[in-house]
Amino acid sequence: MTNDISPQPPVRWGILGTGAIAHRFMTGLRAVPEAEVVAVGSRSAATAEHFAQTWNIPRAHGTYAELAADTGVDVVYVATPHSVHREAGVLCLEAGRHVLCEKPLAVNTAEATAMIAAAQRTDRFLMEAMWTRFAPATAAARALVAEGAIGEIRMVQASIGGRMDYDPRSRLFAPELAGGALLDVGVYPVAFASMVLGEFTSLTAQAHKAPTGVDTQVAMTVTGPGGTLGLLGCSIETPIPRRADIVGTRGSIALTDWFCPTALVLHRDGAQPERRDFPHRANGFEHEVEEVHRRLHAGQRQSPLMSWEESLRIAGTLDAVRERIGVAYPADQR
Q: pTM value?
């Protein structure tokens, strides 16, 4: 008997942006055998060339437009600060490239809508790179919830934070660059709660702000269907423990370093805690790369695990939180 299953051809990647997140993404990407990085693009020819030499990438482009126009690229990973996501994402989509865009997908709902419209118009794949969704530990937590292992879900708690020295010139503290804790790290707990609870029916929020007016610490409560609750927090001024808990009527699931977890602990009423380990092959970015490949090979234009609808829902929640805490960006007026 002959094996008529042919291996899939390599997926050719381009990297747009050369900052720290791009280097971390490359580590995960290189752990996926069928991923081939063929080009990198930057706003500077020198930084593009340096990145290309560091990672042995064949082509270095000194502008985003040159990378977008590179017909040897199948998918572009947008690794820029989120203030540039809409510009870079639409540029690549309209040039015929599929796009994996770092979180948050865009600064606000209007920009996210424009990116999704571009993907629909050009018949290209687009996904927000919420790596939390694709970690095997997160998938295991979803499966446990679905099988009723902890009963009826009633609450989610998720927080994340780290201390960043105040610098008004840093993108983290600059309103014109959509700075602040919420968009930089707060998107993680919002997305986690959305994954577990579904669409929120109400929310409250309080914040502490930097002298530049952006948020440095945010506490949020959300309500989901049936009165489920989410207690969420984020900070760029305090090292909040990175833990998430999904709490049901008959137990709970705890994930540490939950934004890219390698283990979970299942607590069931009347039983000893069960630790389950799910190590990464690399650093965790490989899982979202594999999801992109799966969807492209299936001819799909979005992922059911991180759909366009879900990204719009998250963007809308972030908009609503910023409205409540009084944080606005110049991009909101465009």
A: 0.96
